[in-house]
Automatic annotation (TrEMBL):
Domain of life per record: Eukaryota
Lineage: Eukaryota, Viridiplantae, Streptophyta, Embryophyta, Tracheophyta
Keyword set includes Hydrolase: yes
Organism, scientific name: Glycine soja (Wild soybean)
Protein known as: Pentatricopeptide repeat-containing protein
Enzyme class: hydrolase
Keywords: Hydrolase, Repeat
PPR repeats: 22-56, 59-93, 194-228, 291-325, 326-361
Gene Ontology terms: biological process: RNA modification
Secretion signal span: none
Gene Ontology molecular function: hydrolase activity; RNA binding
Enzyme Commission number: 3.4.24.-, 3.6.4.3
Database matches in PROSITE patterns: PPR
Keyword Disulfide bond annotated: no
Length: 473
């Protein structure tokens, strides 16, 4: 009772005060921890059970609970190890493993486990297992496997049951990979009064870039009187124009979605990408509660609009709000500095990542600083900064520097950047073209000719839209 009400502390107190415990007691305590987002505690309870459980042996429910705990912590290898200890795994055991690997992005393993389950033949997959593996098929682009599972599902259970539970995953698979004929076929076999059906279709259409069809689907959903939920709005807003977005915003206010944070995050994003940063900030200001995505979206929005100082002020406000910045936050803030010419502030922020937040900057953060320095014409500083990167600089980093060298006509750094790029991508003609243009505009025709000769040696043709001859500008 306590666990289901979220009071896991009281549940543990009752558990500790029990003079005798059976396997049901142990399982209930472990499940309580898992339900309340404390999977590591569930694993700890299993250790205690094994050590002094007074003769209680774990049963399949115990093992399933522990597997679920490991999967929620992203430790699917440990979950697999536990699975190997189950004498007779049931359908829940298999499903936990299938969904667990899918949840950490190992969709190939998820599909493999499903095939193993079918081949072993001891238990038949249920709708949860089918839904889980269909999600993996979508991420893998495994249409053939998805169709095979579609047919298998209809073979082992009646169509209504299958489509009611696994239809959404199947719909997103087909729509997401452009098989609208198959998606439409599934769609008309699903319950049209269920918001999940419409959400799956809209998400699939948006995912494949069929914006007009997604909006048509959204309007038909409204016309049929199907209750729109937060997932519907969050899926459709990113592809709405400003007029449509404002209409949905009005609907959100009318239907009181004030506590649904993803909806407001989607509104902030929509207004930001449509050029209405004031509207975006107005939505942000009215939010009852904000999560990490809320802060990242508004900071990124101000940065994109060249309002870097405001973005930095919001980052400061975020730090005082109790929401801890992540790597995405710093990418947004550094990009804001770059677009606003706040070079010193951006460099200081970069070093604060390690000093104040104990974060290790990723390649994208180094790229932001390089772009920032390059935009400001500090090309030598950018070059030296790149050489200090702990990771191997990629083509994007060197490409940003080379482009800046062309803009600022810096031949010495441009030559070095081009050499690095050519060593990484020797058959990319654009790198040679940029370097040749730098030489040509400086009147260094012999060097430009040497670059052309290098291109000829690699059998590269000049891309359309570029010139190997200086324009004089």
């Amino acid at each position: 009772m306590y666990s289901k009400c979220g009071d896991v502390g009281s549940a543990r107190q009752v558990f500790d005060e029990m003079s005798e415990r059976d396997v049901f007691s142990w399982n209930s305590m472990m499940s309580g921890y898992v339900w309340n987002g404390l999977p590591h505690k569930a694993v700890e309870v299993l250790g205690v059970m094994k050590k002094d459980g007074c003769g209680c042996e774990p049963d399949v429910v115990t093992w399933n609970t522990v597997m679920d705990a490991y999967c929620r912590m992203g430790q699917c290898c440990e979950a697999s190890r536990v699975f190997g200890e189950i004498e007779d795994p049931n359908v829940i055991s298999w499903t936990i493993l299938i969904s667990g690997y899918a949840g950490v992005g190992r969709h190939d393993v998820s599909l493999g486990i499903f095939r193993q389950m079918v081949n072993v033949g001891m238990v038949s997959p249920d709708v949860d297992a089918l839904s889980g593996v269909l999600v993996s098929c979508r991420h893998l682009g495994a249409l053939a496997s998805g169709k095979e599972i579609h047919g298998y599902g209809l073979k082992i259970m009646c169509g209504d049951v299958f489509y009611r539970s696994a239809g959404a995953a199947l719909l997103m698979l087909y729509a997401g990979w452009g098989r609208l004929d198959c998606a439409d076929n599934v769609f008309w076999r699903m319950d049209k009064s269920d918001v999940v059906t419409w959400n799956a279709m809209i998400f699939g259409l948006v995912d494949v870039g069929l914006v007009d069809l997604a909006l048509d689907c959204f309007r038909e959903m409204q016309g049929r009187g199907v209750g729109i939920d937060g997932r519907t709005i969050s899926s459709i807003l990113p592809v709405c124009d400003l007029r449509c977005g404002k209409e949905i915003h009005a609907y959100v206010r009318k239907c009181n979605f004030s506590g649904v944070i993803p909806v407001y995050n989607a509104l902030i994003h929509m207004y930001s990408i449509r050029g209405c940063i004031a509207y975006a900030y107005s939505v942000f200001s009215t939010m009852v509660a904000r999560d990490l995505v809320s802060w990242n979206t508004i900071i990124g929005g101000f940065g994109t609009h060249g309002l870097g100082q405001t973005a930095l002020e919001l980052l400061q406000e975020m730090s005082g709000s109790g929401v801890r910045p992540d790597l995405v936050t710093f990418s947004c803030a550094l990009s804001a500095c770059s677009h606003s010419g706040l070079v010193n502030e951006g460099i200081e922020l970069f070093y604060r990542m390690t000093k104040d937040f104990s974060m290790t900057p990723a390649r994208e953060h180094f790229s932001c600083v390089v772009d920032m320095l390059a935009r400001a014409g500090r090309l030598e500083d950018a070059f030296h900064f790149i050489n200090q990167m702990p990771q191997e600089p990629n083509n994007h980093v060197w490409g940003a520097l080379l482009a800046a060298c062309q803009e600022h006509q810096n031949i010495s750094v441009g030559k070095l950047a081009a050499e690095k790029l050519i060593s990484l991508e020797p058959h990319e003609a654009g790198h040679y073209v940029t370097l040749s243009n730098i030489y040509s505009r400086a009147g260094r025709w012999d060097d430009a000719a040497r670059v052309r000769k290098m291109m000829d040696g690699h059998g590269l043709l000049k891309p359309s839209g570029h010139s190997l001859v200086g324009t004089g500008s």
